[in-house]
């Protein structure tokens, strides 16, 4: 009986012992440099007649720790598991993934065509990690990334802020290719052009 009590006390003491400084640090969430939001636009569902572009675009979660990121990514954000005609977005919190957003309005996007379905998740994840890990020198120029699931060909686009700043865009494009391990040329288009014509001309390539 006595030994049972001793064991119980020992167990209680161990359970109640304050965590060491190292344990405390280890268990603390790892903060990101900034807040990010995941968005989704499922355009596979039939739209109501006359519905404007963006009517199915939804902001889903905003987060600012590594732990939240992995939990969200593991649960939902796998484009390859998604239906055709869906877009997945990770944008800086406060920036909407639309040409109309003030941060995006004067910007454009680099686009990588994904040749094999299997590569979509890898490219998406590599880009997400590079963004939340602040791997781009011109991090202020970046608005976010979009993964587009399409019947014909999937694609990933990196949206940036100041399209006419060619030097910044070229640096971002080069870095992104390196991150994705892409050797084919990639192309940059201006949102302003896309507003005017369905297939916007490519302004830069790298
Ligand atoms: P898209 O989705 O960028 O091209 O734009 P995609 O993915 O090549 O085309 P899809 O047919 O495979 O989806 C397609 C069209 O959506 C554009 O021509 C616009 O009419 C509309 N659109 C796209 N975006 C990103 C915007 C936007 O930000 N604002 C508005 N108003 N319309 C947009």
Strand order of the largest sheet: 2-1-3-5-6-4-7-8
CATH architecture: 2-Layer Sandwich
What is the domain total for the residues?
Answer: 1
Going by helix content, strand content and strand pairing, the class is: alpha+beta
Order of helices and strands: HHEEHEEHEEHEHE
Overall geometry comes to: globular
Radius of gyration: 22 Å
Terminal-residue CA separation: 77 Å
Mean pLDDT equals 89
Q: What name does CATH use for the topology? A: RNA Cap, Translation Initiation Factor Eif4e
What ions, cofactors and ligands are bound? Answer: 7-methyl-guanosine-5'-triphosphate
The CATH superfamily label reads: RNA Cap, Translation Initiation Factor Eif4e
The largest sheet is: 8 strands, antiparallel
CATH class: Alpha Beta
Give the count of helical stretches: 6
Uncertain segments are: 1-13
GO cellular component, one term: cytoplasm
Protein name: Eukaryotic translation initiation factor isoform 4E
Keywords: Cytoplasm, Disulfide bond, Initiation factor, Nucleus, Protein biosynthesis, RNA-binding, Translation regulation
Pfam families: IF4E
